[in-house]
Specification:
Strand order of the largest sheet: 1-2-3
CATH architecture of the largest domain: Orthogonal Bundle
Number of domains: 3
Radius of gyration: 30 Å
Order of helices and strands: EEEHHHHHHHHHEEEHHHHH
Number of strands: 6
Distance between the termini: 93 Å
Structural class: mainly alpha
Largest sheet: 3 strands, antiparallel
Number of helices: 14
Strand content: 5-15%
CATH topology of the largest domain: hpI Integrase, Chain A
Length: 356
Amino acid sequence: MANIKERLAKDGTKRFTCDIRLKGYPPQRATFKRKTDAQKWIQDTESAIREGRHFKTIESKKHTLADLINRYIKDVLPTKPKQAKSQKQQLEWWRDKLGVYVLADITPALIVECRDELLAGQTVRNKQRSPATVVRYMAALSHAFTIAVNEWQWIDDTPMRKVKNPTESRGRIRWLDDDERERLLIACKQSRNKQLYLCVVLALSTGMRQSELMWLRWRDIDLKSGVAILHETKNGESRRIPLTGLGLELLRDYAKVRRIDTPLVFPSSIKPLQPFELKSSWNYALKTAGIDNFHWHDLRHCTASYLAMDGASLAEIAEVLGHKTLSMVKRYAHLSDGHVSNVVASMNHKIFGGVS
């Protein structure tokens, strides 16, 4: 039910106040200078209420992007402890740029402008911001919008749907040749940090990420069977890590003198509930070994490359590294060309026999 009341304003002009009352919905009111505008508002509003569009529109005009981001940081980020610090910084960047806009006015075009500004900008280290970094900024904002759509119902749809991510490079592949690997292991073995050598050996032999290795706990390791279980991984699934060879032998020796005041395998000497800081000793080992353009994460590339060159399939490499799909390990396909050729040759020999 709706009605229009006519009244005089202080300046003597007419005003038309509309009231809409529909069962099951809160009452709505608006005032107009022209009766035709009032009638149109009633018609449009009643239609929007019945179709479930009206109150979402009101919410999108009531809340700014700053409101959305502040609520997300407060309510959602605490459930994502590993990403909380970086995503908070990313979301604060978006808040500084677009926070004053109400959600109804956040358009794909506005986001595209900011995306391009990110791409053209520099990091705190005065380096060109990479497309991969921009993608992470956009992913943080995109998830905040998704929560606002699905859970808070502040907006009908996310404007991120119409914004393209920048094209990421295929990613660098840097692995150690035999001589480099030998030099690095010697430098790590001679390091003052007595944990570094074991960490590098385990990283090379298992393909564990740095965070997975540094937060490894003794209760998740079975030294007798040679297995470690990673419960908190990047893709959110547990992963079984085979421990074998030199890595297992070193780990068994290391376990004989392990600390009892911490569950961590590699604790800090100062804060036993935190992993030790390996950056300085790692960088010094690289310098001592004369190895350039190499990062800790490249140890995973080494593991994958060695597996590929040893004949492992892409599916096997993905399982070792903990990837859900093969897309991330296809970069190593060319390293197993010889193995693939042997497989094809074997199949042809079984079908056609030897060539006369």
